[in-house]
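Entry 14. Structure prediction run on the chain below.
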Amino acid sequence: MKNTHGEVFFDKAAFLKNLKALLVRGYFRSQKDINQFVGSRDFVTHLKMREKRQPSVDEAIKIARYVGCTLEWLLTGIGKPPWEPLDQEKEAPKINISGEGIQESPSDYVAVPIVSAGEFLGPQNAVPLDKTTGHFCLHKTQVTMREDSDLLAVRLRDDDRSMEPQIRAGALVIVDRNDLSIDSKGRIFACSLPDEQRAGRLSVQCRRVVRRDNHYVLIPSDPAYGVFLLDVFKPAEMVLLGGVIGVWSPIV
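Output returned:
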């Protein structure tokens, strides 16, 4: 492929590497799944075996829109893959901290209760007051159009590296329990998932969630962690606790 200036912007090796990465991270279930999606039975095989075979413009755009990446990254490997934060996410307003608890919070802050990842099971549950470990002071400009009572700060486990580098182990994630909207690019949600390191006990972990056909796919940033599938016809709130609207990590 060439642009209007005659510059080549297709790297087959990078494109095939990116397809493999999308498979590993759960965006597609198999090579056959990719073939069926683009509407060509031997799409991937022909790309590998035929030197001149390239994805058509329609095929490339279709894949890019589906996984939520740029054409530049898909075709050349330059830029950010879909599992890394978008530039606009970096520009999101910063979370501010003031004081040690609710008594010291100024009037322009909201005191959000903090619970550990293993103590909160779902958005339908009340926050267990005996399990709160303090309050996170969130500036009111961060909660416009949100109900204060729906906000919760969850401290992730120190060994939970499933969303690194976007979310570090032991980070504090601010969750809106009333926000369960899922878009095509994949937003990060706090989820109630079995903890493989603790005999399957449920704990809060973060995942990027996208819809694929009749399933919601919960994708970790680290492929060493498992990908979960949810049936779209079953209540998602049994697993999705709410959208992550902010992250705070201590300086180390």
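The first helix runs from residue 12 to 24.
Filed with the rest of this week's runs.
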